[in-house]
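Appendix C reproduces, verbatim, an entry submitted by the partner laboratory led by Prof. M.T., so that reviewers can inspect both the input and the predicted structure.
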Amino acid sequence: SLSWHHFHNADNSGSKNVYSPHYQSYIWAVFLRAYDVSGYQPLYDRAFAALQSMMGHYPSYWIPTSNGIAMQRARMVLPLAWLVRTNDTALHREWLATVTTGLLQRQQSCGAIMEELSAPGWGGKTRVPNNSDYGTFEAPLNQENTDPVSDFLYTTNFALLGLQEAFYATRNA
């Protein structure tokens, strides 16, 4: 079993998932909340460095995961909201607004957030199954960006949590 020291000292900068909020961003939110409670500066420093790198490469380095882009944006809202709560600057609010705007542009009149396979400037496109390989790998629910699909497992729940915190961090409806 690996100790917390292993994860604390690990350098994940070479990981293929380094620009994927799906895999990494929630630990940044935890670090920022723990910093908010404890004042332990290394927690803030790690989370801020990661968020700064992620937002400095938005969206060109961000990789769509198996389920697409909306999920990536939804996962970034919570850590950015906590960044604004712990260190409210114009830049941090801009980062939060950038991600929430991108996410909410996909919101439909019923409230659902449509999934997105690819978008201009993104670091790749989600793999979409064809008839011969359908069901053999984790894949998006939609085939095109215009398909009326909302993912309640990977996107909407994270969006709801993050958007609630974003509101309380900024008081911006």
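The chain has a mean pLDDT of 88. Additional entries are available on request from the coordinating office.
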